[in-house]
Specification:
Pfam families: adh_short_C2. By secondary structure, the protein is α/β, with parallel strands linked by helices. The chain contains eight helices and seven strands; from the N terminus they run βαβαβαβαβαβαααβ. Helix 3 runs parallel beside helix 4 and helix 4 packs parallel to helix 5.
Length: about 260
Amino acid sequence: MAGRVQDKVTVITGGASGIGEGMVRRFCAEGGRVLLADVDADAGQRVADECDARFVHLDVSSESGWGALETLISCDYGRLDILLNNAGIVAEKSILEIDLDTWNRLLSINLTGVMLGCRSAVRLMRNNAGGSGGSIVNTASTTSYLAIPDVAYTTSKAGVVGLTKSVAVQCATEGLNIRVNSIHPGATLTNILKTALDATPTLAKSFNRMSPMGRMGRVEEVAAMALFLASDEASFCTGGQFPVEGGTVSEHPRMG
């Protein structure tokens, strides 16, 4: 039986671990021709081998790196159908702690990297055989709506919303059949977080209380939202924000 993204050429950044790894596994299972793009060659190649994906080394903050990926896709595949702009880092520094180098590095990955990915994807998708078309899904965060003290991270994820809307509107008004949306995970139980919780089990209660559903999300749930937006089922969705956070951004702060 054909999958929901059968034979669609798909690039997933930050696919070596966490939510990105979950996306790689789901999109491969759904028949996608997946390119796993990451700076972590060892983990990236391992995940790619397990899923029958193709690993490509990519620093998302590098303009030349994206240019090389464009050339590879054009030569080896002749088209791009899906981009999941997922790579990102945290700084964990407040406005009083942040230094300019840390600020610039985080913004170069979390925001400039998403812009470069969108630009490369639109260049490729507008020239797809049979007419322009494709889906771009940018990973933002609940911090796009509700701030945390990590000033660079919060700023970057708020910026992803504006970037997503701008690219979506540009593609739509040009008549390109290229959709652009953002997803907004909350606290998600990645392998890294599982390791932290194993070391400090008391943290689990605090993480679970972050959503009114009383639990953390699973990477598979975030991947499922990305799959929906990438598939033809979301053909009239563009410029939108899609939370996957158990109601976190809908709840008024609790009294106790």
